Amino acid sequence: MNPASRLLTVVSLLSASIAAPLCAQTSAPSSATMNLPSAPSATAPQAPAPAQPTPAPAQSTPAPVQQPPPATQQPPATQPPGSNEPITTIKVQVNEVNLIFTVTDKKGRFITGLRRENFGLLDDGRPPVAVLRFTQQTNLPLRVGIMLDTSSSIRQRFQFEQDSAIEFLLQILHRNDRAFVQGFDIGSDMAQGFTNNIDLLNQGIRRLRPGGGTALYDALYKTCRDQMLTLQEEGAVRRALIVVSDGDDNYSRAQQSDAIKMCQRAETIVYTISTNVSPSKDKGDDVLRTISESTGGMAFFPIKIEDVATGFRNIQEELRSQYSLVYRPTDFKQDGSFRTIYLQALDPRYKVRASKGYFAPPAQ
């Protein structure tokens, strides 16, 4: 049975679980110390491609379900000395998942104001035990990173990247948000660590200089590992990276699949803005699209370099138009496995964009 058909059979179950009393959510700290992979690794399992959804049924008052027992906290994960195996945790309680997602219409316009009963959800092919919280237009604090390609291939376009990034930060950062700025070519240059100070972020962006080859996968892997996975937060936050690059990697030790899996482990949505303005299709465009789609983000392809700012504005609008859904998965195991997520709007006019899945915590 395909995921779309199965969703129709579980809508009533989901509606009932959604009616459960809301539970407070707390965050569990994550930690990771690992080396950059030296050999290719397989990509994480992908969620099935969404089939055309059917119109949502008329709303009815779902029957309440018994409130699940409280979740238990998981201590930070540690790694044996000398091991190269990745360590992963989810950022909420060990048996709760906080899914951030976006809804658009067929023209790509953001849709807000939907209710929790407008969606069907499968986690690893099964409906959740309970939906604990659903938030429209979430105002969860942002932890956002700006990654600017500083390789020699974008030398002539670099000032537009800098100007657009600065304007984006001016518009997007609120009091409880923090951002960092990083450049990358064959290595990574942390120009400014996490801060809410726009002046410091501006100075960091202006200090970056182009030159050298491109190690996109290495930079993405290290950034998610060192900046996002290790975040210590008292409450839930949204993690997002904005990567401005032509996508042409010619220097990385890590594979594309390594970078994507690390983003998924760090529960980080990646948005990409292409600096390739050639009229012909470039392989780097496919790279950027794959990274974004695998993490629940979106890739933007400006027609001319001056339109990079438009990509930043689109991302800004999306970050302020997202939904948050906290749920408790069925048959959840702490085995370090990749669990697929299939989220669908029950109204066929709408399209949901979310991460394809997440990594469960390893066994203790």
UniProtKB/TrEMBL annotation:
The keyword Ligase does not apply. Residues 47-56, 65-79 have a biased composition (Pro residues). Keywords: Signal. Residues 143-319 form the VWFA domain. CDD domains: vWFA. The keyword Phosphoprotein does not apply. Residues 37-46 have a biased composition (Low complexity). It comes from the Bacteria. Residues 28-86 are annotated as: Disordered. Transmembrane segments: none annotated. Residues 1-24 form the signal peptide. InterPro entries: VWF_A, VWFA-rel_acidobac-type, vWFA_dom_sf. It holds the Pfam family VWA_2. This is VWFA-related protein.
